Amino acid sequence: MAASSASDAQLLKTPLYDLHVELGARMVPFAGYAMPVQYPAGLMAEHKHTRDAAGLFDISHMGQLRLVGPDAAAAFETLMPVDVVDLPAGKQRYGLLLNDEGGILDDLMFFNEGNGSLFVIVNGACKVADLAHIQNRIGARCEVQPLPDHALLALQGPQAAATLARLSPGIERFVFMTGGAVQIGGIPAFVTRSGYTGEDGFEISVAAKDAEALARLLLAQPEVKPVGLGARNSLRLEAGLCLYGNDIDTTTTPVEASLNWAIQKVRRAGGAREGGFPGAAKVLAQLAAVASGAAGHTDHETLTRKRVGLVALERIPVRDGTLLQSLEGHDIGTVTSGLLGPTADRCVAMGYVAAAFAEPGTRVQAIVRGKPVPMEVSTMPFVPTRYYRG
């Protein structure tokens, strides 16, 4: 539903707001901004175009910052259960800011620019709190530089690389989770080969003053069409990717959220830099529970629930907030994201279930308008990812 005129006055606008309106976008409130949920072509067409060609997303509501100084990597590592210190220059990694109970304050991306500089992208709804948290915890060890005068665009899809290489020759050399400073049609930008759709693609940080010119240049390419938040949501869900505030938040730990893969061995028990992050005792205990569970002895006292993929066995969409039950009618969890996947062509979801029900293939039921809908726990992604790894 579009924002009311009263709320419009309170919403922030990205540098591309006027372009969205010109293109006929339906604008909605999101993370404190007026953002395009879809354009006249509609969500389904935008989703399909991204899977087939190249979709352009405005993600300028996201927060961008730099951490600068010789101690920046070591300092940042104290806030997350991931390996920051050993990330090579020119590479990017997914990270998780945790609170002292091991709950997820935000998920983010960080890039080692070299020479003691980390470029960080955080979620729009969390950026003010994240900045304060980072400044408070490590501001004495490195310089925290917000970048409010920068916009962020994402070009996603199988034709994204060929399109961008036409405007910035040599950009095709980047592989998934690498990047660097480039010129795109003469416009200075910082690019990483990454994104949140499951497709090959790029995220492009650019000065706010250049954002509209860059967006128009990209939209002038025959492969590119604008895509809104609606298709961004369906694309990321099919790729099995979490939406902060829905699928992860301060009440969920990385292990409960099935994000164990984001915790490198060096930070785990027995690793060279074991622990040393907020909530380490709880998170490491849950990792140990998962390890024992591999031998058939999961400690359900330590790990009581897990995020899982779910597929409805009937063609009935199961939305976020839907109650999940065992086949015997006992409450076992909740759906956190769900829709009819346009590419998967089935009703897919993710949510949290009691640990005993987390094994793929387990049958459960969702209660939709008072009626049970049979579902099966599934591996993710629901649609194969196509990241370019070289």
Task: State the main characteristics.
Gyrase A, domain 2; 9 helices; disordered N terminus; 390 residues; globular; alpha+beta; 6-stranded mixed β-sheet; 20 strands
Which class of secondary structure composition applies to the elements?
A: alpha+beta
Return Rg in Å: 21 Å
Question: CATH superfamily name of the domain at 5-62 and 149-238?
Answer: Probable tRNA modification gtpase trme, domain 1
Strand content: 25-35%
Let me know the largest β-sheet: 6 strands, mixed
Q: For the residues shown, what is the average pLDDT?
A: 95
Query: How many individual helices?
Result: 9
Alpha carbon gap, first and last residue: 42 Å
Strand order of the largest sheet: 11-12-13-10-4-14
Task: Give the overall silhouette.
Answer: globular
- Series of H and E elements: HEHEEHEEHEEEHEEHEEEHEHHEEEEEE
CATH architecture descriptor name of the domain at 5-62 and 149-238: 2-Layer Sandwich
Which fold name is given in CATH as the topology of the domain at 5-62 and 149-238?
Gyrase A, domain 2
CATH class of the domain at 5-62 and 149-238: Alpha Beta
Helicity range: 10-25%
User: How many DSSP E strands?
Assistant: 20
Unreliable parts:
1-6
Pfam families: GCV_T (PF01571), GCV_T_C (PF08669)
Family: Belongs to the GcvT family.
GO cellular component, one term: glycine cleavage complex
Binding site for substrate: 203
Topology:
Layout (H helix, E strand, L loop, with lengths): L4 H4 L3 E2 L3 H6 L3 E5 L2 E6 L4 H10 L1 E5 L4 E6 L3 H6 L14 E7 L5 E11 L2 E6 L4 H12 L4 E4 L3 E7 L3 H8 L11 E6 L2 E6 L8 E7 H12 L4 E3 L2 H10 L41 H14 L11 E8 L10 E3 L5 E11 L4 E9 L8 E6 L2 E8 L12
InterPro entries: GcvT, GcvT/YgfZ/DmdA, GcvT/YgfZ_C, GcvT_C, GCVT_N, TrmE/GcvT-like
Catalytic activity: N(6)-[(R)-S(8)-aminomethyldihydrolipoyl]-L-lysyl-[protein] + (6S)-5,6,7,8-tetrahydrofolate = N(6)-[(R)-dihydrolipoyl]-L-lysyl-[protein] + (6R)-5,10-methylene-5,6,7,8-tetrahydrofolate + NH4(+)
Protein name: aminomethyltransferase
